[in-house]
Amino acid sequence: MDIKDLLALKEKELAARKPICIRCCTAAGCLSSRGEAVKERLERAVYDAGLGDQVEVRGVGCLRLCCQGPLVQVDPENLLYEKVTPEEAGSIVDALNGEKVMLSRVDPDNPFFTKQQSIVLANSGVVDPNRIESYVAADGYQALHQALHEMTPKLVVEEMLTSGLRGRGGAGYPTGLKWATVQKAAGAKKYVICNADEGDPGAFMDRSVLESDPHSVLEGMAIGAYAVGADQGYIYVRAEYPLAIARLQTAINQARRLGLMGSAIFESPFHFNVDLRIGAGAFVCGEETALMASVEGKRGTPRPRPPFPAESGLWNCPTLINNVETFANVAAILRRGGAWFAGIGTERSKGTKVFALAGKIKNTGLIEVPMGTPLRVIVEEMGGGAPDGALIKAVQTGGPSGGCIPAEHLDTPVDYDSLNKLGSIMGSGGMIVMDDSTRMVDVARFFMEFCMDESCGKCIPCRAGTVQIHDLLAKVLAGMATARDLVQLEELCDLVKNTSLCGLGQTAPNPVLSTLRFFRREYEELLLPDPFAVRPTVPEGQVSVEIR
Amino acid sequence: MAVRTLTIDNKQVSAEEGTTILGAAREAGISIPTLCHLDGIYDVGACRMCLVELAGSPRLLPACTTIVAEGMDVRTQSDRLRRYRRMILELLFAERNHVCSACVSNGHCELQTMAYTQGMDHVRFTYQSPLLDVDLTHVSFGMDPNRCILCTRCVRVCWHIEGAGTKNVSGRGTHARIISDLNQAWGASETCSACGKCIQACPTGALFRRGVTAGEMERDRTRLEFLVNAREKKQWNV
């Protein structure tokens, strides 16, 4: 395949389009509420009405407002129907003929939609994730051609540096810098890995991207492989995402069939293959060194860094490892230029970020907003606030590695540095809203239980420390703890944070530390009076005798 | 061979390129506490006892896996490090059933010695007191997971010195256990060559020769180092 064939494919696909398009969400959220049956009924209704040459029923990826699914969008009228049941699906087709229907619709001027800016999700809800032609019609794989034929690997990396894109997996390491390091690393064999082991409770951004637009991730990986000189890629995706796995495998097969993956891509000397590796349910395998051990077929436990994967990764070869959303940004950056991307967002956090908005909030779903958008805009305007008029108490970002941001800090702009300052992290994009019925100690205990269960057991502070922290939190909740337990809790958090081997342990105390910082009173209200309140302090180095 | 010069505890030290901080420190007579490290096998950086402070680095680094670099300024002792080491030991003692008086390794135990030398005189954390079965199915050896600290020395010697691959880790977090083969009785293991290297490697009383009683289990670590030196460096003198 060359560029002429690609453009011909695009033209053919566009020419086959029908005047009216009914887009049905077929991502996991809507499918779980009978979205598949809705699509089938629509197809039948179109056929029965004899509108086969006028109307296209297209299964698409996520249409964002997951809480109102199944969602059906009708173009060009721009009508978005919500909570469509298979029984009433036929009336959407009746409406095309001017009949009055009683279906409930979403207001397209809702800030939930108007405040979004789509780069990663540009194709989500538009292209059919099961058809590569649909992605090609949306200018897909043109960026890969551009990279292979108009740019040197060095230029690609420079474009990434210009864009200012930072890793979307959570830590926010500059992507261009990582690419440059792998590019410069010596080694005949290099690998590219896409980390799709999304495991934070309440987070579903990467799943949605994979289910809605798998080719954008594949294209990003191919561009990355060209830039660093790799010829083999792996996508490590968790087994709990069967639909994402199926769509990725379809996408890989289609790309191979069209010659967009494999040998001599776009008739250049570049060859690149991608294989899937399925995670077996360990959260720690989202940590990059544990992930690579798992790909190698070993027990998924982290190892100390350095050496970093860029220098010595998969099978000791230089390895480029990025998150799903990071790769999904790449093609757009090449197509429109790094400078364009750098023009979006804040000074130190460029571009947009996808969030999975969940918890005690009216509009639950997937959003993509420019970096620097205040939390208040996301929670109150886009999310519509807490249901039933409850007051929002805190917003949790970053899952078990993040923290709770109290309502008084809702005006914080969402960017890497501002969230860090508040003791939370950007994380991969889970955003859980809590109302005033939530007990913060309970939240801390929940996340600590998660970390305790998911600790791999390799290093002692994380393996045994999380157990002790969890027990102390349970003791506080049971009303059995004293002020001394709170001191011990903080000591343990400090130990686990500073001495654990990998990111899981180093960030595990964050939910406790951030709730202690902003909601300390809630802990203190649960404490028993301390029977040993006045105690002489023992200077460091001297032996103290504990009386039990 | 390129040489790197660095400072460890205000002492000028030179070390061969590629040496770890731990290696360089020991060569210079500076002791750093360790539990999962064992001469002769590769390091995993799991026990976190050897964490050191490095000037200019906000993070603590494990001395056993950090390679020396020119001009490093390392501190192996500070109030903070001593506190962390004591707490790690407390966590270990609280995690399983380390009852020294009834242990085969009493008096020859690295965990016990470490507690003495690091000044861990009491445990403030809740004892977990798990119920763990002792495996006495092997004809020569026994395994008592109640004494195990999951340093994985036995796993490493089994795979990388003996090459049998009998010992493994199963489960995760607090449910992690050292197992034989696919979590079978040790005596039923078809891969175990009964070489006894794991017995020599164990820092506590978790692995022992059958027939020993409290305080009788002494180990000879130098055997493992001797084997590795003989194989890799062709040095046969002890």
Topology summary:
The complex is a heterodimer of chains A (548) and B (238).
Chain A: H1 3-15, E1 20-25, H2 28-31, H3 35-48, E2 55-60, E3 72-75, E4 79-81, H4 86-96, E5 105-106, H5 111-114, H6 132-137, H7 142-150, H8 153-163, H9 175-184, E6 191-196, H10 205-212, H11 214-228, E7 232-238, H12 242-257, E8 273-279, H13 288-295, E9 319-323, H14 324-336, H15 338-342, E10 352-359, E11 365-370, H16 375-382, E12 392-397, E13 403-406, H17 416-421, E14 430-435, H18 440-454, H19 460-477, H20 483-499, H21 503-507, H22 510-518, H23 520-524
Helix pairs in contact in A: 3-4, 7-11, 7-14, 8-9, 8-11, 10-12, 11-14, 18-19, 19-20
Chain B: E1 3-8, E2 11-16, H1 21-27, E3 51-54, E4 61-62, E5 73-75, H2 79-95, H3 110-117, E6 141-143, H4 153-162, E7 167-170, E8 177-180, H5 197-201, E9 207-209, H6 222-232
Could you characterize what this model shows?
- The complex is a heterodimer of chains A (548) and B (238).
- Chain A is α/β, with parallel strands linked by helices.
- Chain A has four domains: 18-108, Glutaredoxin; 139-342, 3-Layer(aba) Sandwich (Rossmann fold); 354-438, Ubiquitin-like (UB roll) (Roll); 441-524, Up-down Bundle (de novo design (two linked rop proteins)).
- Chain A is 42% helix and 14% strand.
- Chain A is built from 23 helices and 14 strands.
- Chain A has a five-stranded mixed beta sheet with strand order 2-1-3-4-5, covered by helices on one side.
- Chain A is globular and about 85 Å long.
- In chain A, 55% of the residues are buried.
- The mean pLDDT of chain A is 94.
- In chain B, 42% of the residues are buried.
- In chain B, the strands form three sheets. A five-stranded mixed beta sheet of chain B has the order 2-1-5-3-4, with helices on one face. Chain B has a two-stranded antiparallel ribbon with strand order 6-9. A two-stranded antiparallel ribbon of chain B has the order 7-8.
- In chain B, a hairpin with a 2-residue loop joins strand 1 (3-8) and strand 2 (11-16).
- With 238 residues, chain B is of the alpha+beta class.
- Chain B has two domains: 3-77, Roll (Ubiquitin-like (UB roll)); 83-232, Alpha-Beta Plaits, CATH 3.30.70.20.
- Chain B contains six helices and nine strands.
- Chain B is globular.
- The model of chain B has no long low-confidence stretch (mean pLDDT 94).
- Classes of the chains: A alpha/beta (548), B alpha+beta (238).
